[in-house]
Amino acid sequence: MALQDLTPQLRTRLSRMERAVGWFVFVATALLLFGFGYYIYHTAERKGWLKIKAPFFTYVESSSGLNIGDPVVMMGFAVGSITSVDPQKPYEKNNVKVQFEIVEPYFRYLWTGGSFVKVNAAGFLNQRQLEVTRATNGYALVVTQPVTLFTNLDELAHDVAAEPDHWQLSQDVFGENSNLVLHAYATLTEANLQIITALKPAAIYAYNNQEKDRRRVVASWDESYHHYKIFKPGDETAFLRSVETPPIADQLQGMIAQVQGALPGILALTNKISAVLDNANLTLGNAAIATSNLNTTIVAAQPLVTNFAAISGQLREPGGAATWALGTNGNFQIQGALTNLNTLLADTDTNLNTLTVDIGKTLDNLAGITSNLNVQVQSNSNLLWGISKTVTDSDDLVQGLKRHWFLRSAFKTPATNSPAKKIK
Predict the structure, then answer these.
(1) What pLDDT, on a 0 to 100 scale, did the predictor assign at position 242?
(2) How far is CA 66 from CA 34, 85, 90, 98, in A?
């Protein structure tokens, strides 16, 4: 039925229905496009498509366990992925070149003062994983701040004068004797420019710290030239040295080899342990026999222990040691001896006093005799002369007797060694 054949009421209702369907299709399409856009944005954010990526490369001994797309970790976080794994040419010293990307902001943790790549084992099926380490000093390995190469120092001086405190070095400046004069990131001032001008460098790398970061990495630090190298198509990316650990398979093979080498020693050790156990069984049997003999000895020693206990009990009593050594009458004998000794000491004291008195009287008599002799000598002055003459005459008599032929042999002197004769 044609549309013209419909009544005006039906045509009005049909037009309203068409507009409602049109709006529904429009809203559904908008929602579909919004959902698809959100999905794409969420996926891009999750995979880091919207973040700045810094390219790096390193060299490893073997590509075993490393695949394109494998994650790169730092401090336990996934910070990037491997982009290529390529063997080197036959004449080069390195084996395999591995390129990878680190997303923002993690590449800003990588500095020259200690960042490197660790190739770690990641499973028992020969998988391996790259781990980059952060550093806390040195220079940033890659930068997003634009670096400018000035071959004309006058141009650099003009820019520094126009924008003071805005320009900083992107390189180390060395003196004539290879001494570091200015380090990278040093602010360019008139004094620093005079130092640089005096050294007459061919070019200077610098950057304006007021310029906003670009949405890509524009330069990397070149350790051999001590300056930031501006990225160009086909240039090498930033280099990180690697520390490679052996794969799990190689480690297991080494462990198996060690176990195989140690098996003979282990078997010999088990044989020795068996021999020791046999000797221990024999020793236990001998110990059982010795224990039985010891029990018999202990039973036989019980009377001795009983007697020793009785003796020790007697010794603990007052005077027990003397009673046990001298018998029951020992105490009475000792008491009698001590009584006699006391009596003897008393009599000795009395006799000693009497003897002292007698000695005093004797000394008094001797003093009287010497006193009388002194009086006689003083009263008779010729007495000493007479005694002296008597002594002299006696000596002459004796000398005369010595010379008499009959008595000469009685006074003969013993022979002595004659003195040595003098040699003329």
Answers:
(1) 92
(2) 38, 8, 21, 9
Round to whole Å and give the CA distance between 197 and 188: 12
Which CATH architecture best describes the domain 145-212? Alpha-Beta Complex (3.90)
**In this predicted structure, what is the pLDDT of residue 320?**
60
Token code pair at residue 351: 């006799």
Instruction: Give pLDDT, residue 293.
Output: 75
The model's pTM: 0.53
In three-state secondary structure terms, 250 is helix
pLDDT of residue 329: 65
pLDDT of residue 85: 95
C-alpha 4/C-alpha 85 separation (Å) is 73
pLDDT at 424: 46
**What are the residue ranges in the chain where pLDDT is below 70?**
1-6, 9, 11, 48, 124, 213, 233, 247-252, 314-332, 349, 373-375, 377-384, 401-402, 404-424
How many Cβ atoms sit within 10 Å of the Cβ of residue 71?
A: 15
Among residues 187, 168, 180, 172, the alpha carbon closest in space to that of 224 is found at 172
Please say whether the beta carbons of 106 and 51 come within 8 A. no
d(CA 162, CA 156) in angstroms, rounded, equals 10
The residue behind tokens 């590509």 is 63
The CA distance from 241 to 355, in Å, is: 119
Count of H-run helices and E-run strands, the chain: 7, 16
Domain boundaries in the chain?
14-47, 51-144+215-245, 145-212
**E strand map for 30-146:** 53-60, 71-74, 77-87, 96-103, 117-121, 128-132, 142-143
